[in-house]
Design goal:
Blueprint lengths: L1 H12 L4 H13 L1 H8 L9 E5 L9 H19 L4 H5 L21 E6 L5 H14 L3 E5 L5 H11 L3 E5 L8 E8 L9 H10 L18 E4 L1 H12 L5 H7 L5 E4 L9 H8 L4 E3 L1 H4 L20 H10 L3 E5 L6 E6 L5 E4 L1 H19 L6 E6 L5 H8 L4 E4 L3 H12 L4 E7 L3 E4 L8 H17 L4 H12 L2 E9 L2 H17 L4 E2 L2 E8 L3 H4 L7 E5 L4 E6 L5 E9 L3 H12 L1
Parallel strand pairs: 2-3, 2-4, 3-6, 7-8, 7-9, 12-13, 12-14
Antiparallel strand pairs: 1-5, 4-5, 9-10, 10-11, 14-15, 16-21, 17-18, 18-19, 19-20, 20-21
């Protein structure tokens, strides 16, 4: 209690603008619980940055928390990456791993960062604050001239040889949220130990007076990026095409309804589909409007069927074959296809990732480009169907913790060992192909969906029928995700109590099948993975349940995976068992 009130008092008496102080007083008078939640802690780096509700307070996204986070990040970059830092001098080789090109004492490389933002409320303002702070600290800034996808920011970091990247987005979260995603010089989201080191630097910034919000010469260090980067990005992604001839034969006939869900995918997804050879793209005009209030959906999340309702209606009205929706920062994609009765059915993230993995490996095998060193990566909660597919092609598959940053980490590690990342994904609708981007990428994923449809058409199949063939070949699997939301301080405590209970008394059976293995990712020595608050339960029948608290939202997640002809019934039983 005293800690959060101390934070409140600091903001009321500190160097904060009058509007902020007025909002704090209103919260204190009208919503004491909201005041406590806004100040009881500082926003923390979760999956590579900040994410939270917008508003006043230390636990909110606002110009001060964004400014202080940026100052901490700038301090870290200058301390770790400047050629004359103490750490640099302690390194016998004189090399700095954080810059895309090693530099040595005496050199004066131009440290730079890339910044992008999506269509959320305040995203442009927060991006400009971050740019101003970086520039005021003497760091070159490359900032996009308008909203751009998260994966294009990742691409730009590598293109510009930047030390880091900042993306202002809260992905698929509701409109009240925004976030601040940090990538490192490889274009991947920051991971240990860099993330913790950045957090430590940010924690040292305790007052806005410590932030260099501006400088007289700062504008000279801010450069806009625009269409020229778009063209390079699209050109590199299009170089990953595998079936241009099939697209020539069938692309005109494949009718795709696309919705960006009011986000930034509208800028590039229709364009890459057309350049792929599938120009028959139908829009949902109301959702092409970039709007941080997301007025036509409850939540702009392609995982949720309701988010694609208007696109599905458009598909039925026009006879379209495929529906594609992307989230506000266009790194994740959801699809729907027509079944054998002509009805539009949604694919979940596991199905889409399995479909694309099968297509890409099959096509590369046909082309003779699936030689030694190729590999696939998936997260531990993503379907084992991908593992079975990869085994059939003799391609290694790496399992990593939940979060695309861990996939990017494998790519970075394998890069030095001669490996080539073919593709990889996660059940939460994230997928990527090739090594140009070190994050999930809806642009290249949409391109691959269109190509896969054309390739399947060559075989006389729809995407639905191709998925049926995959199940027939590798066995039927069914997955489901249940989110249990617990908000606020009490909710966080309840989630922790649930995890403790599962550790103390793990289930003995899943759907009547004996649990044979319990994996606790708090023990990195046993798992070979970084320490993480995740539990997995495996049974004799090949079913699995994974449990983990979300790193970015007030919820605990239950991932269910069932194997066999009765998988649908098993999923229903697992939901009953764990709800």
């Amino acid at each position: 209690m005293a800690d959060y009130l101390d934070n409140v008092q600091k903001w009321l008496t500190g160097d904060f603008d009058p509007a902020t102080k007025t909002q704090i007083i209103e919260l204190r008078n009208e919503d004491p619980a909201g005041l406590e939640d806004a100040f009881y802690k500082n926003l923390e780096f979760g999956t590579g940055g900040l994410r939270g509700l917008m508003g006043v307070g230390t636990n909110r996204m606002n110009k001060y928390t964004v400014g202080m986070a940026t100052q901490g990040l700038a301090n870290y970059i200058l301390r770790r990456c400047a050629p004359d830092t103490q750490e640099q001098e302690k390194n016998p080789s004189g090399e700095c791993s954080c810059a895309s090109e090693p530099h040595r004492p005496g050199d004066r490389p131009k440290l730079s960062v890339c910044i992008s933002y999506d269509s959320r409320n305040n995203s442009k303002q927060f991006a400009r604050i971050a740019a101003d702070v970086m520039a005021a600290n003497g760091i070159q800034v490359y900032i996009f001239d308008n909203i751009r996808p998260t994966p294009e920011m990742s691409y730009a970091v590598r293109l510009k040889g930047a030390v880091a990247g900042i993306m202002i987005t809260a992905s698929h979260n509701p409109k009240e949220y925004n976030g601040y995603k940090v990538s490192w010089s490889d274009g991947g989201q920051v991971t240990a130990p860099v993330d913790a080191e950045i957090v430590a630097e940010v924690a040292k910034i305790t007052d806005p007076s410590m932030v260099k919000f501006s400088a007289d010469d700062a504008d000279a260090r801010i450069e806009l990026m625009g269409r020229e980067v778009d063209e390079q990005y699209l050109s590199d992604l299009l170089s990953l095409r595998l079936s241009p001839e099939a697209c020539e034969r069938h692309g005109q006939d494949i009718k795709i309804v696309y919705t960006p869900l009011h986000g930034c995918g509208v800028r590039l997804v229709p364009e890459i589909l057309k350049r792929t050879g599938c120009p028959n793209v139908l829009h949902v005009p109301e959702q092409d409007i970039s709007d941080g209030d997301f007025p036509t959906v409850v939540s702009p999340n392609p995982e949720e069927p309701a988010a694609l309702k208007m696109a599905l209606e458009k598909a039925d009205a026009t006879g379209a074959d495929i529906v594609i929706g992307t989230d506000p920062d266009a790194d994740r994609m959801g699809i729907a296809v027509r079944d054998n009765d002509g009805k539009m059915v949604l694919f979940n993230g596991n199905q889409t990732a399995s479909l694309l993995t099968y297509y890409i490996l099959s096509r590369r095998a046909e082309l003779g480009t699936l030689g030694a060193g190729k590999y696939v990566v998936k997260t531990i909660v993503t379907t084992e169907l991908i593992t079975d597919i990869c085994k059939s092609f003799g391609v290694p598959v790496y399992n990593v913790l939940t979060g695309f940053k861990y996939i990017a980490e494998v790519v970075k590690r394998q890069e030095t060992q001669g490996g080539e990342f073919v593709c990889g994904g996660e059940e939460s609708y994230g997928f990527n192909v090739g090594e140009f981007v070190r994050d999930k990428d809806a642009q290249v994923s949409c391109m691959m969906v269109a190509e896969c449809a054309a390739w399947a058409a060559d075989k006389g199949l729809t995407l639905y029928q191709l998925m049926e063939e995959i199940y027939a070949k590798y066995g039927y699997r069914k997955e489901a995700l249940v989110n249990v939301v617990r908000k606020g301080i009490s909710g966080a405590q309840e989630i922790q109590a649930m995890m403790s209970a599962f550790r103390a008394n793990p289930p003995k059976e899943l759907c009547g099948s004996k649990v044979t293995q319990v994996v606790d990712y708090l023990d990195p020595e046993k798992t070979g993975q970084p320490k993480s608050n995740v539990l997995q339960f495996f049974d004799e029948a090949g079913d699995v349940v994974s449990v983990r608290p979300s790193g970015t939202e007030p919820k605990i997640k239950f991932y269910f995976g069932a194997k066999g002809a009765d998988a649908d019934e098993k999923i229903a039983a697992l939901k009953e068992q764990f709800s």
